[in-house]
Amino acid sequence: MFLACISSPQHVKPCYPLIISPDILPKQWYQRRVRAVDNLRASPFIIQYILDNVPDFQNGVIIAKSPDATRRASSYAERLQLDIAVIHGEEKNEGEEYSDDGRSSPPPQTSFPAQVFTFDYPGTVPSAVPKVKPSIRVVGDVKNRIAIIVDDMIDESRTFLDAARLLKAMGATQVHVMVTHGVMSGSCPEELEQAEEIDQIVVCNTVPVGDKLERCNKLKVIDVSIMIAEAIRRIHNGESMAHLYQNIRGDD
């Protein structure tokens, strides 16, 4: 048995018979490389924290930081009986161009039999409609409400800061960030501490916190060790793991 309380599965060797980890991603990776995975969920701890420590959470709205996070946010919203809002669009990343990848080169001149139906395009294969990222905006109502951003990991602060500024500009009274893995590389703790738009950052102790609590007074840590210990106990005694997955969706 191998216990991996990590967020980046590339650090796990493919020879271990079992991995236990909260919110390990992506699923396609560990389904191919290990014999068995108990992908635990930290969402019950985060939801309980919201119930106990976010005043007037009933006036809150769960925020998906991107369309890809909509299913996770919906799962939280359903159990908290709150609305959901989605942040859509972003600034274009530097260097995101397709001109040098060979797509613009002309196709080879080829003759086909009469039975093959061909189109006579002038000069080259028609290019696909280019992908244009829309300007960032909120889909949903956050005015005069508590915005609760849920995500699996926070490493760099930029996307969270952009989301918080937008939510405050749209009228949100508070912005809380709730994530499982608080990696927070480099100067991320200081940047979050200085951001007036973010009121609180909550992470789980799935990775070492180190000195981040001293560097960011807004940071709170949820202890999920009891869940991992219970998983180890159940596996050691040959007991069912079903209890640890009660009322938990795969989207968390």
Describe this structure in words.
The chain is of the alpha/beta class. The protein is built from seven helices and ten strands. It has helices at 27-33, 43-53, 70-80, 158-169, 188-194, 212-215, 225-236, and strands spanning 2-3, 18-22, 36-40, 60-64, 83-88, 137-139, 146-154, 174-182, 200-204, 219-222. Helix 4 (158-169) links the parallel strand 7 and strand 8. The model is unreliable at 1-9 (pLDDT under 50).
Q: In total, how many beta strands?
A: 10
Strand content: 15-25%
Termini gap: 24 Å
Largest sheet: 7 strands, mixed
Q: Rg to the nearest angstrom?
A: 23 Å
The outline comes out as globular
| Percent in helix | 25-40%
Sheet/helix structural class: alpha/beta
Oligomer: single chain
Q: Helical region count? A: 7
In round numbers, the mean pLDDT is 82
Q: List the strand order in the largest sheet.
A: 6-5-4-7-8-9-10
Low-confidence stretches: 1-9
* Elements, N to C (H/E): EEHEHEHEEEHEHEHEH
SSE inventory with pairings:
Blueprint: E1 2-3, E2 18-22, H1 27-33, E3 36-40, H2 43-53, E4 60-64, H3 70-80, E5 83-88, E6 137-139, E7 146-154, H4 158-169, E8 174-182, H5 188-194, E9 200-204, H6 212-215, E10 219-222, H7 225-236
Parallel strand pairs: 1-2, 2-3, 4-5, 4-7, 7-8, 8-9, 9-10
Antiparallel strand pairs: 5-6
In short:
This protein is of the alpha/beta class and about 250 residues long.
List keywords for this structure.
disordered N terminus; globular; alpha/beta; 252 residues; seven-stranded mixed sheet; three-stranded parallel sheet
